Amino acid sequence: KDYLFTYLTERERGMKRDDDKKVVAEIMARCFVPSLVTTTPWEEFHFVGHEIRITEAMDCYGAVVWPSALVLCYFLETNAKHYNMVDKNVIEIGAGTGLVSIVASLLGAHVTDTDLPELLGNLQYNISRNTKMKCKHLPQVKELSWGVALDENFPRSSNNFDYILAADVVYAHPFLEELLITFDHLCKESTIILWVMKFRLEKENKFVDRFKELFDLEEISSFPSLNITLYKAMKKSRRSA
Ligand SMILES: C[S@@+](CC[C@H](N)C(=O)[O-])C[C@H]1O[C@@H](n2cnc3c(N)ncnc32)[C@H](O)[C@@H]1O
After folding, report:
1. 69 lines ligand 1 (CB under 6 A)
2. How far is CA 49 from the centre of its chain?
3. Taking Cα atoms as reference points, which of 121, 109, 188 lies closest to residue 154?
4. Helix, strand, or coil (residue 35)
5. Which of 20, 40, 30 is nearest to 222 (CA)?
6. For residue 203, what pLDDT is reported?
7. Mutate which of 169, 171, 183 to test ligand 1's pocket (most atoms within 8 Å of Cβ)?
């Protein structure tokens, strides 16, 4: 469904598709997959002038780098002036291998990198390997299972995030409501959410509608060839809610 270009003329649609192909090719070229067979699978990524080596595990969703993560890394790199990460307080949810958090850290952010407990070992390994001696602030890896023990582990009074980053966190899992609660819990009025969404099923469109009840959502860019959209969101102010 070409819902992304509803308001564009035929000519504009053609132009946007050409841009899409060009930018997607540029984004995907940042990934280097070795042809050697090694005991631990890894991939190399090129962002903000660094070679970032990511170790993947094949046994769960979060242990591989998804295209949405590349889109978000590319966005952070190419929009570093407008979305300046230097000394900003950033949290990533559903971080997986940690690539996005690594890029945010290399750009100068103070990052809290979160995921389910079983992902944290590999996540910490990738983070340490790619940020030690390279970043102003070393990222902190922390457990965050959506909707679980939020008040204990992330008390609202001490949450002070400038940005929440999220790549490909919405798919057919049973924790969509908990995910929404988590966004809401971590978000203050001034927090900017940068969220990259991969559309796969109708259920995910419904999540966007639910999300819009709590947040002002703005589409920043879309990549129809990947079915991916990058959104910026902020908490609805009391007046507009
Ligand atoms: C499709 S992967 C995306 C990983 C990474 N952001 C990327 O784009 O490469 C989804 C991520 O969400 C995490 N996740 C799934 N359910 C979760 C939950 N209930 N609480 C916290 N994280 C969860 C997974 O562990 C995984 O890292």
Report:
1. yes
2. 20
3. 188
4. coil
5. 20
6. 67
7. 169
